[in-house]
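Why do we care about 3D structure at all? Because function follows from shape, and shape follows, mostly, from sequence. That is the central idea of this module. The next example makes it concrete: a single protein chain, its amino acid sequence, and then its structure expressed as C-alpha cells.
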Amino acid sequence: MAERRPIKARGAGWAQAAARWLAASRVTPNQISASSMVFAAAAFGCFWLTRPAGPGVAAALLIGAALFCQLRLVANLLDGMVALEGGKGSPSGPFWNEAPDRVADVLILAGLGLAAGPLWLGCLAGALAVGTAYLRELGRAEGLAADFCGPMAKPQRMAAVTLGCVAGAVEAALWGSTVALRVTLWAVALGTALTVIRRSVRLVRGLSLPRGAGK
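And the structure:
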C-alpha cells in the first residue's frame, strides 16, 4: 500500500462519518478526487472576478475562494479514506489521487496571482507546487519513503492561501487594496521554492545511500 500523507483530520469524527457515508453510496474515490479540480476551478473563478469587482463583492469572492480551497482539501482527504478504509479502491486510483492535485494546485495559485496582481508569480508558485509532488514521487519510484516535508507542502500552502484570502477579504472591504494577497502569494512562492530545494537535497542524499538504507 502506498504511503499516505499524515493528516490529523483523518481521525476526526466528521471525516470518519463522511467517509462511511460516501463508501456506502455509489460515489467512487476517483469521482471524489476529480471533484477537487471542480473546487479549485471555483476558487480560480472567485479570484478572477475580484479584479473588476467593488470592495464588498471582492471581499465576498475572497471568502468564497477560501471556502473552495478548504473543500479541495476535504476532497483530497476523503478520496483516500473511501478508497482504503471503505474498500473501494481501483487500479486507476493512483492516477486520480495525483493528477487532479496538480491541476488544483495550478488553478488555485494562478488564480491567487490574478487577484493579487503578479500573475507570473502565481504561475511560478503553481509550477513549484507541481515540482514538490514530482520530487516526492520520483523518490518513491526509486524505492525511498515518500517525502512530505515542508515548509510549504500542500496542507501548508492551502492553509496560507485560506488565511490570506480571509485577511484579503477584510482588507478589500475596509481599504480596497490587495497587500495581504500579495504578501500571501510571495510567502507561498518562496516557501514552495524552499520546499523544492529541501526535497531535492533529501532525495539526492537518499539516492546516495546504500540500497535499502533510505527506506
